[in-house]
């Protein structure tokens, strides 16, 4: 290393496009050269050791090698590090001092994504992982009225869960989401939309399209219903997006970039048309919001419609706080929420919007919010895998301890799946409530 190179960067991090359209992206030899370079930098720094399973795995491999350096680690073992990465992005956005514009140009999550993509293209991804990331297909099947109850019964059965563990590697103690035959799309079909003139602000159009997301449509439609009620209570007309599909985040984490592209082609066509008609867009799941605000724009930087949707996409609490800045938020709350332990979801943290959910919750009178800025370790599918569940629960333990210490009236997370992961760690019979549900309760609507 040259002596004039700095230890770290003081500039704000910048992100380069993924570059998956270039042949060198898929060159496995070049991949391993870059993995060795970045692993060596990480080994010399170790600042990210507390974030996820990737870094302890890497450092253990190095420390247990003959040379105690990266050159002593077998190349095949590099994949162990890749498999533990669930693209939370926290290392890039909150820890790493060597991200661009630093000359070492370390983008650990996108390097892991490149490795996952090459692995997927080689056909080395497990059938289980291809199945459980097919959220639209599973949701459509599991929401068929005669099938929903059977799916939920099987998922709650100890005997059936042991069988799933043995046959396809779904951990028997990992919480699996429930399915509803009456999806958000079905529930919303009979709703009379708010008939109000959209009231614009400097940064919002005052009327919103709700991108339901797979989870919000099939698993917890109540979240979408609560969001609609809260927004309409604030005079914001809401329309549920039609003809959309999964945002693509599960397939991105799998490395199936062709599936991500197909989902993009469908969703962007629908959403860009709505943006042209003057609608803003929100989603109830931080990962889905991030997909449109960051990952798709980095995959398709030249696609004008992708950039258009990016600029119109908002986290729901970000949207409410932007309205509040211009006195457009109804702060006539009827009920206190008491003490709220608030887990800040990783994919919301890395949107660089600040803790807008906390800020809205704190507008409720006599309400104390205790933020917990720590990864829950859930990642959608990571915790359900038999080989990773114990690590996921270990990552979650500090969050669980923080919730216990707070002794809150409610605990919550913008990521509903993370909240249920915390629920599993608490194991005390208590249940989380989504932040938008808490705001609805505070309004008394």
Molecular structure report:
- By secondary structure, this protein is of the alpha/beta class.
- The protein folds into 4 domains: 99 residues, no CATH class; 41 residues, no CATH class; 132 residues, no CATH class; 121 residues, Rossmann fold (3-Layer(aba) Sandwich), CATH 3.40.50.1860.
- The strands form 2 sheets. The chain has a 4-stranded parallel beta sheet with strand order 2-1-3-4, sandwiched between helices. It has a 3-stranded parallel beta sheet with strand order 6-5-7.
- Helix 2 runs antiparallel to helix 3 and helix 3 crosses helix 5.
- The chain starts with 27 loop residues before the first helix and ends with a helix.
Quickly list its features.
445 residues, alpha/beta, 3-stranded parallel beta sheet
Layout of helices and strands, plus pairs?
Elements: H1 28-45, H2 54-63, H3 78-84, H4 90-95, H5 108-121, H6 127-132, H7 135-142, H8 145-156, H9 158-167, H10 184-189, E1 208-210, H11 214-219, H12 221-233, E2 238-240, H13 249-254, H14 257-276, E3 280-282, H15 286-299, H16 304-312, E4 313-314, H17 316-325, E5 338-343, H18 346-349, H19 356-361, E6 367-372, H20 389-406, E7 410-413, H21 416-426, H22 435-443
Please give a quick description of this structure.
With 445 residues, the chain is of the alpha/beta class. Helix content is 50%, strand content 6%. The mean pLDDT is 93.
Cα(first) to Cα(last) distance is: 62 Å
Helix tally equals 22
The main sheet comes to: 4 strands, parallel
The poorly predicted ranges are none
Instruction: Spell out the helices and strands N to C.
Output: HHHHHHHHHHEHHEHHEHHEHEHHEHEHH
Secondary structure category: alpha/beta
Strand content: 5-15%
User: Helicity level, as a percent range?
Assistant: 40-55%
Number of strands: 7
Q: Residue-averaged pLDDT, rounded?
A: 93
Taking strands numbered 1, 2, ... along the chain, how are they ordered across the largest sheet?
2-1-3-4
The total tally of domains equals: 4
Radius of gyration: 22 Å
Shape: globular
